[in-house]
Every structure is written in C-alpha cells, then in structure tokens.
C-alpha cells in the first residue's frame, strides 16, 4: 500500500510539473525562512548556558536615578572588587575584569629570528584574577589554574594567542616567555588554556594578572581608589556561595557602597545591582563597549516573520491545490467507484503533500548555507549550519516537514476526497461549489494579503524613520569631516597638525576627544553648587553629563553654535568649559546667559568656569533625548577632526587629501596604522540595527508579496475553471475581452481592498509602538498607507492579468462542447 501511495504521489508530481514547481517554490521560501531564523534564535539562546553553577554567577551593575530620569551602567567603580571580596559574606568568588587600555600592542621576541615582532590592536586583553577560570570551564594546557595569575606581571594566553605570538613552539615551552605591552608593561607567560568554542559574552583571549595594576601607573588610570567615578571598561562578576540569597548579598553591598561615599539624596540615587549571567546577552540596558547583545523582542519579531511566511506558503499550497481540483476530479471518481474509501484518499493526498514538502525541505537545506553567507552582515559570526552533525536541527526539520505537510495538505485532501463519483463522472465536479460561495478560499486569500500589506506598510515606515534620522538637523555639521586617532606619544603632534592644517584641501581642523556623536560616549561626575543646594548629575549613560574636550577649533569644525557667552580660549594652561542648553536648564538657569561665570566641579576636586552655552545637539542617536553635556578646553587626547573643503564634481580632492594626511601621520609614526572614518558614516552606524531591520523587512515583504500573488493566481485559476462555461456563454452573447477581464478581476481586487482595510490599522498600531523607542521620530503619514495600498493592488492586477486575459480570449466553442 505504501509503495502505491509513493508511486501515485510521484506520478501526480510529474504530471503537473508546473504546479509542482510553484508548490516547491512557495514552501521552500517559508521553510528556508523558518530554518534560518530557528538557527539564529537557537544560537542566541545558547549563550552562557553551559557554565557550572551558572545560576550563582552575577555581574555587578549600577542603577542610577537623576531627578525623574533613570539609567543603568554595566561598569562599576574599580575599588568595589576588593571591598566586596574583603567585606561581603555569601560571595564565593569575586572576579574583576578590566579591559586593557591604550593601543593594545604586544611585542614578542622571537628567539630563532633574533628579532622583536609587534602585534597591534590585539582584541580580548583584560586584567583579571585566578577565579575568572572558575566562571568558564576552561581546559588548561599548560601552567597552574590555581596560581597562574597570583603574582604581578603574569599573563595567561589562549591556545590561539600563544600560537600567534610563539609559532611552532611547544605549549609547555611557552611558559616563561616574555611579552611587552605598549612599551612599558613587561609580563611573563604563566599559563595556556584551550580556546573556548561555546557561545559566551566572556570572550577574552589574554588574561593579565589583576595584581599588576597596583604595581604600575595603571593604578591611577583605572581609578582604583575612586568610588565616585568609574570607567566603562571596569566590570565585576560574582559567584555567590551555595545557599546564599542574591537579595541579601545585594543589600549588604549597597550598605557598603554608602559607607565609602554618599550616593543618595532627595534627587539622586546610585545603587549596585546584580544581573544574572543568563540576562547579560539579552539586556540592552546594560550593553557595554564591545559587547554584542541580542534583543528578545527582535527575536520574537523574527519568529513571527517566519511563522507568517510559513502560513503564507501553506495558504498558497491550499489555493493552488484546490485550483487543480478539476484535473483530479475524474481520477477521484474512478478511485471511489473502484472501492476506494475517503480515508484512503485523504491519506493519498496528504502523502502527495508530504512528498512535495520533503522536496521543498531538501531545497531549503541546500540553500541555507548560501543564505547564511548572503545575510552574513546581519547574523552573528558564530552562527553556522551543519545538518548531519546537529541532531536538534535535523529533528526541527523533520517536525517542520510533518507539520507543514499536515497544515498545507489537510484542507485540499478533505475537499478533493469529498467529491461525489456520480457528479464527477458527469463533468459536474464544481456543481456543488460555485465560485461565489468559495468563502474559505477567499478568507485564505484575504489573510495572505493582510500579512503582505502589513509588511509593505511596515517597510515603508521603517525606511521613512531611517531617512528622517539621517537627514534631521542634528545641530552640527556632519558632511566631509574626517576623524582619526594619533598614537599616545605626543612628540610629533604639533608638526602633524601644522602640516595637515596647511593642506589646500583642508578647511579647518581640531584635536582633542570624541566627535559630537558616536556609539557609546564619555561621562563625568560633575557638580555645580549655587550656594544654596548642591545639584549633581551622576554617571548615567542616558541622561547624565556627557564629556567632550579639545581646542577652540572644535566648534568651528562642526559648526556648533553658541547661544550665550564665548568659545573656550586656546592655550595649554587654559581650563574653561562650555555647557549645552539642556545642562544649563537642568542646573536651574532661566536665562542661559546667567550660567556664564559660574563654576563646575569635576570629580569633587577641580573647579572649572563656564564661559559659554552651546546650542543643543544630538550626542547620540535619535532614540535618546538630548542630555546635559560639557565641552572642556583640554589639549590632551589624540583624536583629530578634519573638515575638508567641498569637493568639485568629477575630482578626487578628498582622496588626495586623505592620502596626504596618511603620509604625514606615517612619516611621524612609522609603526602606526592610519585608520580614518568619515563622521557621517559614524552617524549612520548609530542606526545599524534599524538599517538591518529595514533590509530584512524588505526581504520579508518581497517574499510575502510573491507568495500571496501565487496564492491569488491559484484562486483565479480555480475561479476561471469553475466559470468556463459562463464565460463561454457571455462571449457568444457579445461580451468583450476587456469586459470579461474586468468581471473576473473585480472580485479579486475587492479581496485585496478588504485586506488593506484590515491590515492598515494593525500596521499603524505596530509602527506606533516601534516608533516609541525614538525620542525624535517621523510622523505616521497618510500617504504611506495610500502608496502601499495602491502598490499592492497594481501587483495583484498584474498577477490576475496572467490568467484572466488568457481565459477571456479562449474559444467559447471549446468550453461549451460538453453541453
């Protein structure tokens, strides 16, 4: 019996090869989307799920409140690590992780070559202690886990980093080798661990002993004794003792925090928090520098897209399968007359659906590696597909194939198996099912176009918001500005700046710190005392004081306007500050000019006078409102800002300028790399997530429209087949081709319009919710809905014309021959 089912299914597939290919195309689209999104969601949810006692591992974070604004930071004051280790009970391990500062350059002496090899900008270099290796199940290849980082000037390397620094050297012989970091930090290799190949947010590759900090100038750079300020690279992890209660430990930590500094008043509050390990990868509120996070809302949205595409594919299959009913009707009648039961026919049709779905699944599995490569820009680097080595993926495909076969094939199987043999053999297969009563098929088609219309409107609005963000007046110039960093050695700064400023292609330049806006930022603990009460802004990444500094040319390069006072003056001993309008208002100045001459206190010590007020500008993306910001006159810092003159059309003036600037930098610092970036690219990068969302949404839109049009084609083929004789009679009575085309099309256009009426309010609601994440957003314009609706109607008419014109031009004699 099973062999007979397979044989009949294969014959049905080859006999209707065109429809079979359409079936496979539609189903493979849905299955491919589901498979890729399943791989992505599974990968993201596998982060840090393998650690021993992972439920006892936490990251210490900060919760901040300034007035009515709240904020969070994944970084903590550096002295917290030792204080918690010495004073807080219930903690089994205290693990500080301090990101390496500077150029991250490693110099290694190769004995055989007798020369020093330089490795620049090495990622994954941290200062930590021995308990770090209790957080992750590292495999030790050389050295002692218990003592490798006990002494200052020690380092543990991963196997790959050891092979990079000491190629061809046996790992046991690497122990005792010396590495020099940034010319002033010599260390000795004391351990080698195997590279960690499981998904984790702890991705370090070089581990320098934490005790090294206290023996070097890093003590001051890392602010190891400062409780009221901290660096973004100062992270702290805890492993609680068995039986310890996290809430109790946290309460004791905050009591200790208050002991070392006053962090609470009526307006402001600063507290420790404990973030569970399994929350780190998904909590965007605590995203730190260099940390890739996944948004659970985005993952749920992707799952919804995969579900919709699968649903569209199943609806498409259903409509096309019922459209083929007339071609199978006589076969069904003969099989029933010969004794075939309805259950046998249902199983036969489901087996045919399974055969087609299986082929679609194989096509999808074959396409998946190419799809992962095609969308590599939007996918995490560790994501891969290996069907035969991943049982869970194979099980997912088996379950998906069975589910799709059942959902897509059940309705056609029930309908086709229900034909009466007497009516079928009299060529009256459609006698009991006139087109105007084919309600289920119409509902399915409307459902398809509701989903497609929703995607079209959403794609328009996401693109509109991105365009709004990139073209909005941000309060500064962003075109034709070049940013790059110089090495820390300031010896050649003056010569470099003079040569660059004298280039004919350069309009203006400045040196100092970060540009007006970029991902991340710098913050300072700044207070202002008006003589009656102290008003401070804590280190809050969302609403706190952002810090920029540099020379007076900074405002000219970026064309930042002053609304009160004057610019900072030039000079190495000048220490003056500008504040923005938001900070002036936060400090209580009703007239902006009243802020001039007042003093700000930095980190509780140095007082700096306010000499001007800048017009507000966006220091980050439009997701966040403009917050308080201070610009300080300082000559430290090697971040160079170069404003280029307008480039005449057809010339290469900017490329020539970049080449000259690079040559100047390389002549002064032969070992340095000249890496530049245009400022407008930095602005665009702030919306990388939105641009990726837009691209993926455009793909989903295109696929949903394609599948919906295939379903519409199936319904019009069914209708044309059912109304063949009616059309023949109309033509004999004088109906024109255009009249018949409009007659057949009007009903389907009505379905598309109904879909638009349903989809429009749903899309408006969803887009409004998405736009709430932007403090500054584009309006939801009426024309977006009109254009989207018209576009989908045009696409539907083009799809309809493929079959309606063909039906209207058919010879009526052929359709009436059986009467």
UniProtKB/TrEMBL annotation:
Domain MacB-like periplasmic core positions: 20-253, 533-631
Protein name, UniProt field: ABC transporter permease
Transmembrane segments: 21-41, 298-320, 345-372, 392-416, 443-462, 696-719, 740-760, 780-800
Membrane topology classification: Multi-pass membrane protein
Highest taxon in the source lineage: Bacteria
Keyword Transmembrane annotated: yes
InterPro entries found in the cross-reference section: ABC3_permease_C (IPR003838), MacB_PCD (IPR025857), Macrolide_Exporter_MacB (IPR050250)
Compartmental location: Cell membrane
GO cellular component: plasma membrane
Keywords of the record: Cell membrane, Membrane, Transmembrane, Transmembrane helix
GO MF annotations in UniProt: transmembrane transporter activity
Pfam families xrefs: FtsX, MacB_PCD
The keyword Heme is annotated on this UniProt entry: no
């Amino acid at each position: 019996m099973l062999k007979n089912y397979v044989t009949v299914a294969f014959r049905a597939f080859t006999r209707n090869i065109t429809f079979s290919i359409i079936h496979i195309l539609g189903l493979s689209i849905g299955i491919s989307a589901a498979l890729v999104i399943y791989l992505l969601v599974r990968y993201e949810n596998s982060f840090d799920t393998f650690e021993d006692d992972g439920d006892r591992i936490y990251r210490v974070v900060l919760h901040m409140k300034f007035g009515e604004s709240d904020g969070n930071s994944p970084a903590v004051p550096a002295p917290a690590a030792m204080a918690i280790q010495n004073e807080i009970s219930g903690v089994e391990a205290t693990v500080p992780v301090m990101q390496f500062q500077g150029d991250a350059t490693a110099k290694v002496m190769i004995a055989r070559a007798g020369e020093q090899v330089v490795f620049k900008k090495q990622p994954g270099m941290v200062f930590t202690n021995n308990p770090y290796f209790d957080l992750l199940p590292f495999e030790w290849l050389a050295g002692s886990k218990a003592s490798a980082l006990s002494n200052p000037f020690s380092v543990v390397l991963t196997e790959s980093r050891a092979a990079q620094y000491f190629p061809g050297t046996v790992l046991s012989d690497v122990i005792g080798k010396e590495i020099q970091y940034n010319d002033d930090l010599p260390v000795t290799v004391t351990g080698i661990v195997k590279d960690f190949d499981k998904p984790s947010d702890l991705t370090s590759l070089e581990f320098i002993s934490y005790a090294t900090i206290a023996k070097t100038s890093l003590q001051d750079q890392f602010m190891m004794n400062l409780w009221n300020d901290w660096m973004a690279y100062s992270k702290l992890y805890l492993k609680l003792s068995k039986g310890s209660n996290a809430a109790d430990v946290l309460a004791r930590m905050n009591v200790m925090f208050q002991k070392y500094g006053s962090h609470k008043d009526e307006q402001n509050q600063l507290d420790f928090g404990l973030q569970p390990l399994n929350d780190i990868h998904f909590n965007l509120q605590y995203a730190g520098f260099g940390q890739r996070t996944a948004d659970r809302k985005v993952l749920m949205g992707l799952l919804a897209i995969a579900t919709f595409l699968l649903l569209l594919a199943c609806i498409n299959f259903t409509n096309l399968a019922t459209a083929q009913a007339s071609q199978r009707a006589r076969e069904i009648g003969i099989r029933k007359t010969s004794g075939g039961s309805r259950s046998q026919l249902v199983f036969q049709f489901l087996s045919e659906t399974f055969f087609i779905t299986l082929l679609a699944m194989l096509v999808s599995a074959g396409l998946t590696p190419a799809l992962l490569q095609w969308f590599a820009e939007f996918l995490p680097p560790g994501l891969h597909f290996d069907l035969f080595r991943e049982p869970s993926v194979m099980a997912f495909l088996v379950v998906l194939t069975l589910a799709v076969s059942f959902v897509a094939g059940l309705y056609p199987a029930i309908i086709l198996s229900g034909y009466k043999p007497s009516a079928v053999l009299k060529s009256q297969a459609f006698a009991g099912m006139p087109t105007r009563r084919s309600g289920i098929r119409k509902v399915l088609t409307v459902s398809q176009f509701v989903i497609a219309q929703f995607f079209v409107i959403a794609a328009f609005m996401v693109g509109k918001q991105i365009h709004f963000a990139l073209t909005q007046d941000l309060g500064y110039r962003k075109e034709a500005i070049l940013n790059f960093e110089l090495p820390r050695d300031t010896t050649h700064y003056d010569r470099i700046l003079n040569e660059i400023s004298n280039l004919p292609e350069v309009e203006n330049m400045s040196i100092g710190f970060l540009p007006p806006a970029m991902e991340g930022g710098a913050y300072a603990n700044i207070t202002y005392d008006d003589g009656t009460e102290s008003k401070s802004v804590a280190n809050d990444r969302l609403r706190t004081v952002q810090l920029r500094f540099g020379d007076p040319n900074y405002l000219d390069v970026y064309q930042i306007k002053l609304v009160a006072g004057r610019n900072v003056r030039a000079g190495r001993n000048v220490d003056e500050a500008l504040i923005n309008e938001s900070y002036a208002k936060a400090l209580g100045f009703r007239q902006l000019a009243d802020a001039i001459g007042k003093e700000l206190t930095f980190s509780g010590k140095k007082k700096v006078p306010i000499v001007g007020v800048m017009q507000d500008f966006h220091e980050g993306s439009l997701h966040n409102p403009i917050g308080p910001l201070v610009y300080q006159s300082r000559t430290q810092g090697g971040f160079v800002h170069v404003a280029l003159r307008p480039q005449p059309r057809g010339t290469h003036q900017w490329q020539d300028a970049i080449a000259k600037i690079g040559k100047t930098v390389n002549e002064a610092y032969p070992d340095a790399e000249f890496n530049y970036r245009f400022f407008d690219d930095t602005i665009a990068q702030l919306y990388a997530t939105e641009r990726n969302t837009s691209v993926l949404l455009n793909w989903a839109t295109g696929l949903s429209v394609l599948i919906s049009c295939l379903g519409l084609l199936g319904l019009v083929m069914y209708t044309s087949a059912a109304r063949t004789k009616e059309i023949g009679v109309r033509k004999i009575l004088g109906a024109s081709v255009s009249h018949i085309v409009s007659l057949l099309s009007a009903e389907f256009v009505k379905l598309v319009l109904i879909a638009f009426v349903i989809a429009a309010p749903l899309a408006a609601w969803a887009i409004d919710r998405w736009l709430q994440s932007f403090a500054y957003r584009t309006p939801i314009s009426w024309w977006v809905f009109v254009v989207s609706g018209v576009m989908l109607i045009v696409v539907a008419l083009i799809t309809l014309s493929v079959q309606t014109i063909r039906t209207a031009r058919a010879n009526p004699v052929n359709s009436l021959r059986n009467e």
